[in-house]
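From the shared-data thread, chain only:
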Amino acid sequence: MRCSDVELLWDEMRSGIEPKSEHVLAHLRRCKTCQHAYEQNEGVAYCLTCLPIVEPPQHLVPKILDHIKSMRQHYRSGVADHLARIASPLGNLHVAWRDTGITFLGIARDEDDDAAVAIIEHRLSRPVRICEPPAWVTGAVRAFFTTWRADLERVDISELSPFERSALHKAAEIPPGEVRSYGWIARELGAPNAARAVGQVMARNPIALFFPCHRVVDSNGALHNYAYGIDVKARILALEGYVGSGAAASDPIGAKVRA
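Structure, as tokens:
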């Protein structure tokens, strides 16, 4: 298990939906870097529990209760996204969709269908059900691996915040075979100090590949983190024609496509 795997499973372990906590704990016992990150996260969590409970402003209480009620009704209403495994050059992909577009795309690990459903329901905060993918979904996936560009008319990220949507769409402007930094995206969005926030958006990207967070690197041109592992990130970039880390180091704002 790699550090990036631990980061992805951390929240899932806390929620109890991924039966791999022993793997995470075994990694923590060996990895000093993750031990330090764990201590920091636990410290923040402890400090949060020590904060006094503050009553929300009275004028917001009805709005908060209405929002909670609507979300609960939506989740329990049986309205579910569809989910399928689709083969790709990177292995099996998990793809979720509804009538308005693709809502989730991730690279499958070794989880079974029940575990995959639990993980994706947790990510989307609504139920999903397994079924056969329609032609437009499989076509969108196959087209990406032909052109390395996604048809963004086929995706639905309407439930994300405006900043999240803007950051993901800006990442989609990065040409195949090139990279840009988190800071570049932040500057393009008119928020030059928001590089860290951009990194968080990329880490929680619900539609990997189509919104190519694998083309986003740190300010030194290093590939940095990737939810599915640095080796997978490097493999995707190589398939797209990315020159490599040497070019990125000299030009972190965009290594060119190999001739």
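The two ends are 35 Å apart (CA to CA).
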